[in-house]
Amino acid sequence: MAIERAAVIGAGVMGAGIAAHLANAGIPVDLLDIVPEGAKRRSAVAEGALEKLKKTKPAAFMQRRAARLVVPGNVEDDLGRLAEADWIIEAVIEDLGIKRDLYARIDAVRKPGSIVSSNTSTIPLAALVEGLPERFAGDFLISHFFNPPRYMRLFELVTGSGTRPEAVAAIRDFADRRLGKGVVDCHDTPGFIGNRIGIYWLQCAVSEALAAGIPVEEADAVLGRPAGIPKTGVFGLLDLVGLDLMPHVLASMQQRLADDDPFHEVFTVPDLVQRMISDGYTGRKGKGGFYRLNRDGGRKVKEVIDLATGDYAPAQRPRVAAVAVARSGGLRALVEHDSDAGRYAWRVLARTLTYAARLVPEIADDIVAVDEAMRLGYNWTYGPFELIDRLGSGWFAERLGEEGLAVPALLEKAAGRPFYRVESGRSEYLGTDGDYHPVQRPEGVLLLADLKRIAEPLARNGSASLWDLGDGVLCVEFHTKMNALDPDILAMLRTAIDTVGKGHRALVIYNEGEQFSAGANLGLVMFATNLAAWSQLEAMLREGQETYQALKRAPFPVVGAPSGLALGGGCELLLHCDAVQAHAESYIGLVEVGVGVIPAWGGCKELLLRAVGDRRTPRGPMPPVTRAFETISLAKVATSAAEAKELGFLGPDDGITMNRDRLLADAKAKALALAEAYRPPEPATLTLPGPSGKAALDMAVHGFRLQGKATAHDVVVGDALAGVLSGGAIDPTEEVDESQLLALERHGFMRLLREPATQARIEHMLETGKPLRN
Q: Per-residue pLDDT for 121 more than 80?
């Protein structure tokens, strides 16, 4: 069945967020909640939730107009609207009685065959449907989203013995393709997978830090990136989630888990945390948590709590020897390090990983589901069993035994073998039966990671590689830090152009890094600037322009496939592709003004061409210039692929893929479709306003300066940008071609790069990661 309309009951943080993400998928959704006592507006709760969604940061909606698809209401007057819904999601308080009463009311009005699900994470499905009609149970399942629903990819799916296979298939496919989720099948057990392990891990980390006297910052440094965990670490994550949730979640888990479950050993809510909650220190949503921002002389100062005293002091970012050793020696070097930090890392990881191993097959059929849940639900780089492999399963079991700790049956069954292996080019996992089984990918998923197990690149250098995707399509992959663009990447793009031209059909530019590309390597630019290597810098500018132009004029289609940041030179690269297939969470923009320069690899030129060809742009030479100037001068960055279309970074025919794992396959399909009877775009010319247009833009920038909205150097950068976009010193009756605009870009960039204020902006960005307002 198709999901064409949905309803969410419960307009709290989770319910409202789920409704917003359904709207992101283009689905009309009714958001219902209770009628508040004495309220003048009977749907005030849902209406208020919708207004909060529009202001939430990070944004809940991928574009503003998606909010129109969410229709607020209440469960007293509007329950009849559920008759139109194909999927009804319950997201009310975790109270079994309230949920069952609600299900009876839903069943009375819903249409036959509609699917009903709960977003619960603590109450078993069997308990939820007990005593309800068999027909209702057949349409019921648990669909557990993680917060925030737009950004967290984990979608835990729990079904009952009587749940219709057709209902399961419909939700699985919709969550995968339309919502972009990684669907993980879980057994009907408390906390399912993510929270069962994740909460235990967090509790271990907190209790061990308190017991061993490990400072908060040191704990987060140790259990952060060295362990493949986001930089928030443990305490930073608790601040993000909210400390006030801890007592409720822990109590629920304690109530529902068996008496012999190791969770009970870490159940206690520490006295310090209780005091923090009572005093309003509930994390980022409160006055602060383990970390807080304090104002000192008008400056925001990050402070951290002392676990022993409860007092705050300025954060220091400590240097931890065990962390330094882990950078070169890996995870085992971290847990073997003879220090308090090393021992802390071992105790937390040993307990967490053995707990995960103990739970299979109780919580899931296999280890793949467990690893996937922890990667997608908690942003771990490696799941528990992948972490055991990094330590060595034999070594891990031996050390557990030496310390008198119980070795889980699954770890004993591994008998020193890895939990994952590559056999004949295929990834396999160790099953609970002791044999290896293939890791199955859903149909339509294509990953470079899988290709790398069975193939060698056609070409490779220190910054990029060229891969054969089959069917005549090649793929350029970047692999620098943040995928910053450098001469080696430009060289690989030229190699790709030559290689595709010798018997292949199309080129895709894609990588599986966290960011598509953060732009040009500023470190190289600053290094050359400090040496006053102006000719070399201008040569690199020309090289970038010529490479991007070669991509645009190639006799075959080029498809960009971004995910994450595509800034500066990364955005310019996409602007020169024939088409883009973007992951929904692509953040695209020309941000060069933030470091005191202008786009100079064809970004000004291409954005102008887009503005001229956009039906939303009024006719005449000035409107496209004004539109491009505003976008570039304000360093606008799209907060989603959908918004990138509104800003002109993506074209109307460019595609958007919701599920990151499907991006490469979709980009390849787009490239093959374009390859049929492909012809490269013809060279373009523009009619631009010239000096009079530049004067108008300059006046606008000076006006902003007088209002305090622009800095002194913003005026200088704006002047250079206006000179490029207006066409330079031309007669307005003359046409300007692409090569002329590229020359203007180079001249403006090089002039700005010699400015001390620009150099200060670049240095500040390299040191702090933040723009300097000078």
A: yes
